[in-house]
Specification:
single chain, alpha+beta, 9 helices
Length: 243
């Protein structure tokens, strides 16, 4: 066991409901196993049968599906505070991989201990289940974006989502956040060619709503950007209320 306080997890959960001191202590007392991964490293393998769930502590990660023809689709972005595979506790076999989009620090917690704290502290168990429900809500919105949005609105929507989720865990400063992804990875997130992705990012920059240079995105006009994207954060469940 390594000394570790899951501060980003606390922040993510407490944006939605209050955690008691006992619940915070229960999370901190899990037998966390810390690891670091480099940019592009596989954190969890497709087809694996994990006995731990993985909490992202630092960096960005993505869920990944590799097709037989070699094409890849990234199906979700994960930010600090996310349990990237909590559903694996119930589904047993991972039907996708999780990869690092940037250098990452992660913490693994044993499934046996997660089951125990969920049984002993039912409210905390509901909060953990809420994480899985939010993951599903994010997937529904990504499907809608992929199927029905033009590229400019889709990429603007991605920026809005990452901005709001990073803001929850204190990683937005004066409208700016780190988004260390390549244009190839953005293309795999939104289902476009690299050429089309490059052209669309240039169009988004020209809107004046954001500056996107290298690994940093600065949002200058949140209202304008969210209108462009038709972004409604309801699916992120950012309302703090009893669960």
């Amino acid at each position: 066991m390594e000394d570790f306080i899951p501060e980003a997890l606390y922040a993510m959960l407490e944006r939605r409901d209050e955690l008691s001191a006992i619940e915070r202590k229960a999370l901190a007392s899990l037998s966390w196993r810390l690891r670091t991964y480099g940019d592009g490293d596989e954190i969890i393998g497709e087809g694996s049968e994990p006995t731990e769930s993985c909490l992202l502590v630092e960096g960005l990660a993505a869920r990944s599906r590799q097709l037989a023809n070699g094409n890849r689709q990234l199906t979700a972005v994960h930010v600090p505070g996310d349990f990237v595979d909590l559903h694996g506790l119930l589904l047993k076999v991972m039907d996708h991989a999780v990869m690092a989009l940037a250098p990452c620090k992660v913490a693994f917690a044993p499934h046996t201990e997660l089951r125990r704290v969920a049984a002993e502290l039912p409210h905390l168990g509901r909060m953990l289940f809420m994480c899985v429900a939010i993951d599903a809500a994010v997937q529904r919105n990504w499907i809608a974006c992929m199927g029905r949005m033009d590229p400019l609105r889709h990429i603007a929507y991605l920026v809005c989502e990452v901005y709001r989720r990073l803001d929850v865990v204190g990683q937005v400063r004066d409208g700016a956040f780190e988004f260390p992804v390549t244009q190839s990875e953005v293309a795999d997130l939104v289902g476009l060619s690299i050429v089309h992705t490059n052209r669309t990012i240039q169009e988004l920059r020209a809107s004046g709503y954001v500056t996107w240079q290298g690994n940093q995105v600065i949002v200058h006009d949140w209202d304008g950007l969210s209108r462009l994207a038709e972004f409604d954060p309801t699916y992120l469940n950012l309302v703090r209320r009893p669960r």
